[in-house]
Amino acid sequence: MSDLSSLFHPQSIAVIGASNTPGKIGYAVTDNIKSSGYRGEVYPINPKESEILGYKAYPSILAVGKPVDVAVFCVPAAASLAVAEECGQAGVKHLIVITAGFKEIGGEGKKLEQDLVSIAKKYGMRITGPNNLGVMDTHTPFNATFAKDMALKGDIAFISQSGALCVAILDWSLQRGLGFSQFISIGNKADLNEADFIEAAAEDPNTKVICLYLEDVVDGDRFIEAARKATKKVPVIVFKSGITAAGAKAASSHTGALAGSNTAYDAALRHAGVIRARTMTELFDLAIAFTTQPVPKGKNVVVVTNSGGPGIVASDAVETSGLNMAKLSPEIERELAEKLPPAANIHNPVDVVGDAKSDRYKVALDAVMKDPAVDAVVVLLSPTAPLNIVEAAQYTIDAAKANPDKAVVASFIGGKKLEAGVKLLNENGIPVYPFPEPAVETLRGMIRFGELRREVEAGQQWDFDDVQKDAVRAIFEKVRKDGRDLLLGPEAAEVAELYKIPAAPSKLATTEEEAWKAAEAIGFPVVMKIASPDIMHKTDVGGVKVGLKTKEEVIEAFNSIMENSKKAVPDAKIYGVEVQKMMPKGDEMIIGMAKDPTFGPMIAFGSGGVLVNLLQDASFRLAKGLSKAEVSAMIKETKAYTILKGFRGAPPDDVPALEEAIGRLAQLCRDFPEIAELDINPVFAYPKGLSALDVKIKIS
Ligand code: COA
Q: Which atom from ligand 1 is nearest to the alpha carbon of 100?
């Protein structure tokens, strides 16, 4: 773990390229440090000046003669290496390199960035940036950025890969009255990256939630490790941009075609316990809610409203977002019936009806919030004439305070008439929205975080010690020696078997005699397929024969498969014919692996068979760290699960057997990073057990 305490709590800051000219970056940074109330030493560095903004200026960092924790670079890129070298000699700990003109411009810039990192490494200095806005900590306090303002003091750490977004968010937050603990522009991430800043924010006592705007992740494993650790302490929310450009690439495997970098980010963030915000609005809605409201214990939501329509809208939103409308306890409903007029609806959504004065909100909220069947509350209010809105807001605040373990969000629907009530709610930490859906969305995100955190806490990697790693390695070596990267069917089936994934028995036959002997050994009926790494679509070339019941049929099939294949693909390297046991029909599933450049192997499960790419029904998880609970959840997420449970009167399939096969496949991929692609399609799922019919493995 990187120690960033001297970056966030520096005893001294040097501004290299500090300037007396308003409008220059070196002026803005010095001015911001000064006006932020920073209590440490400030050393402006400028060879032409003796004083800058009231501070004594030095011609170079070497002239300071005292320890410097942080140096902020406001000099042109061309000067940066010489300046970094001097910083190293002066014993500076951190460089915040605002300067642009590095990796982001390519070519020379890339080289310059590498050289900058080398100098920093040589002296043990850490770099934030380059090409960034700077860093703020409102509690230290200091503002080493060239933004127009300092963030308000608060408890949200914001880490952003875009500097421009930083200034925009900052400006918005000032209008909104939203505060930050740390505000970090990470720029090109030449050295310190998102993982370092997540770790630092999680350790920061002033941070209650960590928000990130990311365009990419530098080191997948470190990111997951840092985020998993952080989410045990505080919620981490990520908005990841660039999801459309990084769509699924053409891949030769089915799983590869189903996956894509967006899927990998989903899988990785989920595994890390991180919530993925789908919009920037959601990122900050959640951030605000997490700093003021408890994480709900479960997903049972009650809606309290003074109008029917919005009550239905909110109830729909609860149901469609996968939350439950809480079923109120009989005694609570009895209490509501006693205290509310007969026209009121005492069942969830609780409707205090249109003529309600604020006291009915008090009655309803006090009752529902003490119900153990309720985890979270949505308070809806439409501005009717009899209602004192500020009082209703106050009762909401009181009820939330009296029940600190239950999350409360509100939707005061309207505008002008509600301003005072909305202000009061905002000031008292009740998230409030002009419409019901975003209120429910916020709850959904909070509840999701609770679920993810439980998954992370329970999530031990599912390992198997009864696998035959050495035998698999020997098969891969043989394949490599043979100059291939694709395993033949029988080899791939053997690999599966060595990891105790039941595969349909199969043998390679190079002559018709070997073929019928293999069939006799396996037992009739058999399926025969051409064994050639150069023939992908075997059926199309007449390279597959099914339902062969006798020695004669096997001999005939052997010869016709060889002939058809040679005719269709004359250059193909043919290894013979695979003789495979014809398995009874089962429900067709796919289990596979696709590799992501950032997060490594991802395991897929879904509906299999020839329609796999049409159905697009697959769920993904990272192979690294895959727990039994995650495997179970990934099966349940698919439409295939409906079939597995026993569709239209069919008996249910053996889900535990599938779970185990997925767990074992993940281990195979973890044990052998050289597996580049892997598909088992179809896997026949049976009421008892399963059979891997067609195993394809490609190694690198
Ligand atoms: N040591 C100390 N001071 C030095 C120096 C050195 N080696 N070399 C130059 N300086 C001084 C200059 O004399 C100048 O001071 P002055 O105003 O008193 O004349 C000051 O440092 C700045 O140098 P200058 O050449 O005027 O550069 P600039 O201010 O025009 O630009 C940057 C410097 C860093 C702002 C610019 O190179 C840059 O990268 N801009 C983009 C920043 C950006 O967008 N970052 C990403 C944000 S998300």
A: 39
